[in-house]
Amino acid sequence: MKRSLRLALRPPELPETLRDFVRESLNGELREAQRASRWQRLRRPMLLSLSGFALVAALLAATFYPSRPEVVMESMIIKHQRNLPLEITGGPEVVRSWFDGKVPFAVPPPRVEPIASLRGGRISQLGDREAAYLQYEQRGQRISVFVFDPSGLRLQSPRRAVIHNREVFIQGTRGYHIAVFQDRDLGYAIAGSVDEPEFIQFVSAIMRSP
What we know:
alpha+beta; 8-stranded antiparallel β-sheet
């Protein structure tokens, strides 16, 4: 009877895909915490002059590894839910200048007024790749926009749409709307809980932005 109970109570084996997702999520959170700690130290004037050049060089040398689309989308939702404090606040030009040299790609914050207003941004992570996080507000609701290097990422989703002659991958999960598309060698990932018509209107405004 004891032998039978041991076999019956043996914990189930976790799927390998779940193991990979948990491992990548933990690694991404660790890298984000380490990067946030470095930026806190850089705010001190004495350390800024000593470590600024080394940090920028390290960021520019960062290597991107291909992520699975489901990991990127799940990471979007987690980051959107956490609502971490912004590292920079202000309009598109202020935010654009702040990101220069902090991530290895240009970050042109889309202009979507009067549909929504840009509140600011911070450095973030999507799966195994670095991302610039932009926060917008639409009728009192927060919408998250992640800008990242899409190299090696093959997007797929149950639902696709064509907006302004570009393919958009759209998905709804856990009460959130998600949209991912590529434009001018940059990837854009958008997450929000606004109603679907307003969400599509916001995505369309992002894609129209120069």
